[in-house]
């Protein structure tokens, strides 16, 4: 399978990307001027600073009283004035590699492609009957990006140069380029206007080194002050590494290094095969154009599925950081939403396909990161709320600050309405859900005992202290539903309320999973009795006048009836706690339809979430409708997800949705082809995962199951 095009990239969202989990490159593919945007996952602005608000806890009781007295706006203002901390830092682009060719003639037979079966990208064309080819791959075993430039005659003439938006020094010599750089001390999020002080270089930012090495060249090489010039060559091989030292045997030639890379990549990628129809031999952008015009192309959905798996393999491997909002591919100093880890849906969605799409090798960066967040979040829980355990809010960065954000760098008061997204201490409860799910799919008691049990215990401790008794039941307050607002009786709006549906679902899930763990491990934990009592008396889900599941504790009028988040449906998906409750499932369905009728599902990741919910509801045609929408309305020509702008979460949520249309293992029941749409009338899939360490192959024709095998 491959993506291919008959022209070079015209914008960043056209580029073809490669990555090894830590290093990434965005390839423009210009025939006369090649441009590679380079990334290394650990390059972030800032330095570690404790951003917890040491005075926050003293205002918690006052905020609660205001909310319980239904003075929601006053409570929100008090939070924003006294209970938030500074914003996160930002992910940095390493720099740009330019390769300028001395092509004076017309370019013919141009093609740019990404072979996702072998994780290699290429550019090929002709000039004066000479055949030129470039090949690129990012090797996980070697810890480097390799570039091979070739011509069937000794007509390779080009110059190499490097530039960066960050402070850097580049030294050119006869072996390549050596780069030393320094990240800024601080970078504001792109949505903050801070009077020209958005980027502060300072002297406390992290330093980094990178190297582009010429490992093979059969032409002449000359070094200038700002470039390296190569002429009269037929083959040149380059290797790029950054931050971490490359780990390849320099006695191996390019083809040997490439085969090692392909073998490593295919050990993960080849575990799953999806066939939905014969491939159409057209460039990918033209296939998308035809799909948007209403033409059928089932094979494009299969390509999209495998491309999503490719992206996660390329951006999340053991030893790396987890995939962020853009995976590892970013080109702006002030990237959208700081290109961080947004934890109220986005980073969790990045890892939705790990289990069912057979990508377990990509999960360890997420697990490691959450464990670091949990350790930092203990301090936030104590300082902000006088609670045990750990908490996390809606944003995370390289420095693992866990405080609620809203205050600009050096400021004292949060921005108005910043509580809408930041006053959400339930991020930790969501982040830990993947740990127990991983155990369900890979039943390893040692993993459960050493990593899942202690982590969920800390999450449960926080929730025990965060909930409190009011009018005979346990509630959460202040409580928000991520990024959504409601209209108040006083004519204003607010985000803070009591016991949102998402809070209740997360609490039930964490407590329920912790109890299951204790049963499996035969642990008589001293908090079990308290957990059982909280579950018995926890506030209940509410159903509104239309039969819909209420997002808040009352039937408020929504400020955005078509809001992008569907957080109140968490209990249906990704959680399984609604699985046996037909009343709550139906209320969730009504809520979803209501939101969509008002314009919901309009961002890429939101559309992906909708696909999964419809799949779980067994609504195959609506699941397919929004899958098609994801490709035709919310995808760029390089198949990146369009929020817009580019966010990678929609890619990962989308492929999880495809898998959930084909098989589901939820609440001790395996459903085969539970949401197979009419359009996918014939096909097969091999290697999808179900729980208890099992794998399933499925084949079907004329919309009916032919055969399946579980092994």
From TrEMBL:
- Descriptive protein name: Alpha-L-fucosidase 2
Look up the signal peptide feature and give its range: none
Known InterPro entries for this protein? 6-hairpin_glycosidase_sf, 6hp_glycosidase-like_sf, AFCA-like_C, Alpha-L-fucosidase, GH95_cat, GH95_N_dom
Q: Glycosyl hydrolase family 95 catalytic domain location, by residue?
A: 254-662
GO-annotated biological processes: carbohydrate metabolic process
Q: Which Pfam families match?
A: Glyco_hyd_65N_2, Glyco_hydro_95_C, Glyco_hydro_95_cat
SUPFAM superfamilies the record matches: Six-hairpin glycosidases (SSF48208)
Q: Which GO terms describe its molecular function?
A: alpha-L-fucosidase activity
Q: Which residues form the Alpha fucosidase A-like C-terminal domain?
A: 664-710
Give the Glycosyl hydrolase family 95 N-terminal domain ranges. Answer: 3-243
């Amino acid at each position: 399978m491959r993506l291919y095009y008959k022209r070079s990239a015209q914008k960043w969202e056209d580029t073809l990307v490669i990555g090894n989990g830590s290093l990434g490159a965005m390839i423009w593919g210009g025939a006369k001027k090649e441009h590679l945007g380079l990334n290394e996952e650990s390059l972030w602005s800032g330095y570690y600073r404790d951003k917890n608000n040491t005075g926050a806890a003293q205002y918690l009781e006052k905020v609660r009283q205001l909310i319980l007295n239904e003075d929601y706006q006053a409570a929100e203002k008090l939070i924003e004035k006294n209970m938030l901390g500074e914003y996160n830092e930002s992910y940095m682009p390493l720099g740009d590699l330019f390769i300028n060719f001395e092509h004076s003639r017309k370019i013919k037979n141009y093609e740019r492609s990404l072979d996702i079966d072998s994780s290699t990208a290429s550019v090929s064309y002709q000039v004066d009957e000479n055949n030129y080819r470039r090949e690129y791959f990012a090797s996980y075993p070697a810890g480097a990006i390799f570039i091979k430039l070739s011509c069937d005659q000794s007509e390779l003439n080009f110059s190499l140069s490097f530039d960066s938006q960050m402070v850097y020094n580049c030294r050119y010599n006869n072996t390549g380029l050596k780069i030393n750089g320094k990240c800024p001390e601080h970078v504001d999020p792109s949505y903050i206007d801070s009077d020209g002080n958005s980027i502060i270089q300072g002297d406390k930012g992290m330093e980094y080194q990178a190297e582009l090495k010429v490992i093979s060249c059969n032409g002449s090489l000359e070094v200038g002050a700002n470039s390296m010039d190569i002429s009269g060559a037929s083959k040149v091989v380059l290797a790029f590494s950054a931050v971490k030292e490359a780990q390849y045997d320099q006695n191996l030639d390019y083809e040997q290094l490439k085969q090692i890379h392909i073998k490593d990549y295919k050990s993960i990628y080849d575990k799953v095969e999806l066939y939905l129809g014969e491939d159409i031999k057209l460039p990918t952008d033209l296939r998308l154009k035809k799909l948007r015009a209403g033409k059928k192309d089932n094979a494009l959905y299969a390509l999209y599925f495998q491309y999503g798996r490719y992206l996660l393999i390329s951006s999340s491997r053991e030893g790396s950081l987890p995939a962020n909002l853009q995976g590892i591919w970013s080109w702006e100093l002030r990237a959208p939403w700081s290109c961080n880890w947004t934890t109220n849906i986005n980073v969790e969605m990045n890892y939705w396909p790990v289990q069912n799409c057979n990508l377990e090798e990509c999960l360890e960066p997420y697990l490691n990161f959450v464990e670091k967040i949990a350790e930092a979040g203990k301090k936030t829980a104590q300082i902000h709320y006088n609670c045990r355990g750990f908490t996390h809010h809606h944003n995370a960065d390289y420095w693992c600050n866990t405080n609620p954000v809203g205050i600009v760098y050096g400021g004292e008061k949060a921005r108005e309405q910043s509580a809408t997204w930041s006053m959400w201490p339930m991020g930790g409860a969501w982040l830990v859900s993947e740990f127990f799910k991983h155990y369900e799919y890979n039943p390893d008691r040692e993993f459960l005992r050493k990593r899942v049990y202690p982590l969920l215990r800390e999450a449960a401790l926080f929730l025990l202290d965060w909930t409190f008794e009011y009018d005979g039941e346990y509630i959460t307050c202040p409580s928000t539903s991520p990024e959504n607002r409601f209209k108040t009786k006083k004519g204003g709006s607010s985000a803070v309320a009591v016991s949102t549906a998402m809070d209740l679902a997360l609490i039930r899930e964490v407590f329920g999973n912790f109890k299951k763990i204790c049963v499996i491990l035969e642990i008589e934990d001293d908090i079990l009795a308290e957990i059982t009592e909280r579950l018995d008396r926890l506030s209940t889900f509410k159903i509104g006048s239309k039969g819909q599941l209420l997002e808040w504790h009352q039937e408020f009028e929504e400020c955005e009836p078509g809001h992008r988040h569907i957080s109140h449906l968490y209990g249906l998906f990704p959680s399984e706690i609604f699985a046996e409750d037909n009343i709550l499932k139906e209320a969730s369905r009504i809520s979803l339809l209501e939101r969509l009728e008002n314009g919901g599902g309009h961002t890429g990741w939101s559309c992906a979430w909708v696909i999964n919910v419809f799949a779980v509801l067994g609504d195959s045609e609506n699941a397919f409708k929004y899958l098609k929408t994801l490709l035709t309305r919310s995808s760029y020509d390089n198949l990146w997800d369009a929020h817009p702008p580019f966010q990678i979460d929609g890619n990962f949520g989308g492929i999880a949705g495809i898998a959930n249309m084909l098989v589901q293992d939820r609440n001790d029941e395996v459903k085969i082809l539970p949401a197979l749409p009419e359009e996918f009338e014939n096909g097969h899939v091999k290697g999808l995962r179900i729980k208890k360490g099992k794998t399933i192959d499925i084949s079907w024709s004329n919309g009916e199951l032919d055969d399946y095998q579980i092994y």
